Amino acid sequence: MQGATARDIAASLEAAVRQGRLAPGAPLPSVRHLARALRVSPPTVAAALADLRRRGMIVTHARRRSIVSPRPPVGVSLTEARLPPDIRDLARGNPDPDLLPDLKPFLGRASSAARLYGDEPVDPRLAETGRHEFAEAGVRADNLCLASGALDGVERALAAHLAPGDRVIVEDPGYFAVFDLLRAMSLEPLPVAVDANGPLPGALEAALQTGAEAMVLTPRAQNPTGAALDAARADALSRVLRRAPDLLLIEDDHQGPIAGASGHTLSRGRNRWAVVRSVAKSLGPDLRLAFIAGDPETIARIEGRLALGPGWVSHVLQSLVLELFTSPTVRELLVRAEANYARRRDALLAELARRDIPAGGRSGFNVWIPVPDETGVVSRLLQAGWAVAPGARYRLKSPPAVRVTVAALPEPLAGPFAAALAEVVSRPRPSRAA
Question: I need a labelling partner for 5 at 20 to 30 A (CA). Which of 76, 87, 339, 371 fits?
Fold first, then answer.
């Protein structure tokens, strides 16, 4: 690292990340150490780190040194290491490939008609399908557009109204990619605790008093906890949000028809809102398409920004998604997938309960299991043949835990995994030598 000004030092650190000399998650030296090494004042180094922090390049926790963001917004390879073939991968949040539709029969049916500049950005038939999908969760989709996946939709909705420095309420535990996105946009995440039924109304009320401008909420299949709103919690949260009528509410309903829980929305009657529904979990992660419903102003701003950039989501992709969603065979597969994921989730929760291991997972792919030592549990489970995700990336202030993706855990394996976890959790931690 080098540089005599804050700008030069920040550029040098960014280059080190981009070139692989500083890996994602790597710790940085202290401000004083960097200042001595570069022969500049500590305030100069602090200003460089502040700039990198605002852009999401580094993360600083209270009373700890800064680290390179696990997902820095710069062109680096974030490909995860391939696991040995004898390890059961319960760490990645992928759907079961056997419960995704085979695209081959549908690729030939997708429209190959040439689309030109000036054509309608959204196929009217797909828009109608999207409105039907949203209606299941009680969302009125009079105003609708498309994005390239759920996070793209969340980012565009945030950018439609927010400015750098604005505060955004998020779930804690919550989806790490949302945390990273907010930091990259120079937005400040405000954590709100969640239980099995979603954000706690009291915690939300306290967060609103800090002057938040927006909230990102997962109404069901919450990642990583599997939380899902029920009618009572949705009503309680709606009452709290009425005290902030201009707060931008973004709901990320990313699993939709396979979530395993009824849809509830807090969007009704709000001034600023957007509900995003991706097809990645139900139809396949490579189908980069998400519907966005919202108030007229928000959707108009998103459409206007899209027009200045990509213009539209590929009509070939739109046609393929339309063919899939309107296929009776695919519809039957989605029902079967939802039931399969629910059985796997329930099987694991039952096996954990038998061993007095607390866990949460009302919906979706994931089960969240509190543990005293994330690193030790992950490491020892890996030695036993199981890969699970450490909870650190999903937490801001909440206690340690691990995330298990049940999409990759057939019911007969729920017992063996729970037994392995029970053995790992009960094993005393090795003491350090004096």
Answer: 76
- Verify that 300 and 361 share a domain, yes or no: no
One-character DSSP codes across 124-186: HHHHHHHHHHHHTTT---SSEEEESSHHHHHHHHHHTT--TT-EEEEEES--HHHHHHHHHTT
Q: Are residues 342 and 259 in the same domain?
A: no
- Cα 337 to Cα 26: distance, rounded to the nearest angstrom: 39
| Strand 273-278 with 144-147, pairing | unpaired
What's the helix, strand, coil split of the chain in %, to 5? 40, 15, 45
Residue 347 lies in a domain: yes
Structure tokens at 147: 């994005």
In a domain, 103, yes or no: no
Identify the burial level of 429 via C-beta atoms within 10 angstroms of its C-beta, where 0-12 means exposed, 13-18 middle and 19 or more buried: exposed
> What is the dihedral angle through the alpha carbons of 318, 324, 327, 332, rounded to the nearest 10 degrees?
-150
Domain final residue pick, 302, 326, 350: 326
Same domain, 159 and 280: yes
One domain for residues 211 and 291: yes
137/211 same-domain check? yes
Q: Average of pLDDT values for 11-29?
A: 86
Shared domain for 270 and 414, answered yes or no, is no
Beta-carbon contacts of residue 288 (< 8 Å; ≥ 6 apart): 148, 149, 152, 280, 313, 317
The residue out of 258, 291, 326 marking a domain boundary is 326
User: What pTM was estimated for this model as a whole?
Assistant: 0.88
What is the three-class DSSP state of 411? helix
User: Is there a contact between 259 and 363 (Cβ–Cβ < 8 Å)?
Assistant: yes
Nearest to 53 by CA among 4, 23, 7, 10: 10
Mean pLDDT of 22-41: 87
User: Which residues neighbour 416 within 8 Å (Cβ) at sequence distance 6 or greater?
Assistant: none
Q: Is residue 180 part of a domain?
A: yes
DSSP state letters, 32-62: HHHHHHHTS-HHHHHHHHHHHHHTTSEEE-T
For position 161, which CATH number holds? 3.40.640.10
> Nearest 5°: phi and psi at 192?
-125, 130
When divided into structural domains, the chain yields a total of: 3
Instruction: List the structure tokens of 100.
Output: 């995704």
pLDDT, one tens digit per residue, over 169-189 is 999 999 999 999 999 898 999
Rounded CA gap, 111 and 317, in Å?
Answer: 9
Tell me whether residue 371 is in a domain.
Answer: yes
